[in-house]
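This part of the workshop introduces the protein records we will be handling. Getting from the letters to the tokens is the skill we practise here. An example says more than a description, so a record of this kind follows:
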Amino acid sequence: MTIKLITSFVLAFLFASAFGKYYVPWLRRQKLGQEIKSEVEWHKSKSGTPTMGGVMFILAVTLCCLTVGADGMLHGRFEHIFVLLFALVFGAIGFLDDWEKLKKKENMGLSTRAKFLLQLAAALVFILIMRQTGFVHTHLYLPFSQRIVYMPEWLFFIFAAFVIVGTVNAVNITDGVDGLATGTSLPVFLFFVAVALLWGPRFQELGIFASGMVGGLLGFLIYNFNPAKCFMGDTGSLFLGGAIAALAFAFDMPLILITLGFLFIIETLSDIIQVTYFKLTHGKRVFKMAPFHHHLEKGGWTGKKWTEKELFALFTGISLLMAIISFIGVYHRYP
């Protein structure tokens, strides 16, 4: 099992890093550059940077699932394929959004309503399929306490849809600084790799997917680290969010996202708090700018203006710490 996970990591890294050498220049030649929001004026110099770079790690992990994970499929193990297909659906929604932005030559793609309805439909279909095939159960495992809470089927579906759509959009919100969503997501997938190794062969296929994501993201980071030669776009960030949510449910521990996705939650809450407070106070703000990483870029409450590299180090470090805490929380699930 360990050999397969290592193979998946190496294959994904080599593919993503090699593919990027040709893909990024191709995106430039096609003039598939991203427009920058007018509010983020200090990022204006990045306008025109190629987007949809997430295709690099999407193709990389797909290759791993179909090659390293082929043996599992021959033995009737399709968990990694379910997770891949689910993430691909969200990646496709992101692609439509990116394409609309490129056509309009602005930062607004699909309407918020259209994106939400597409994401909700995808979430419900995924949970239904996973439920019918026995990969998902209508109970909740409580990390750290090692308890199980049972839920009515209807309530579980509402909960699952909320968690999935919330996770996908939280990762999307975090993708606002060079390498930030990439660096924050890496420890998350490393956590799933570690859990697969800890829990044994029955989770091998999910481990192959998670390991492929780690390799693919590291290969992509070569082009996404500040100064970024390429952005992942909504194609990549929605795929990432879908993959993280799907893995949490496939491992039967969606509540682990409270600690594991701590930074994604902070980013989302900062946005919600800012908008709500702005409306209630008729123009006042809690943060200098939301989401939270922009607040830090503008000096936060201390006056220190964080650079993009500093933010990458901060978010990646905190995400790694939360991944370690999350691992401790599930360590004794299968003694």
In short: The first strand starts at residue 139 and ends at 142. The mean pLDDT is 89. The chain has one domain: 2-255. The beta strands are 139-142, 147-150.
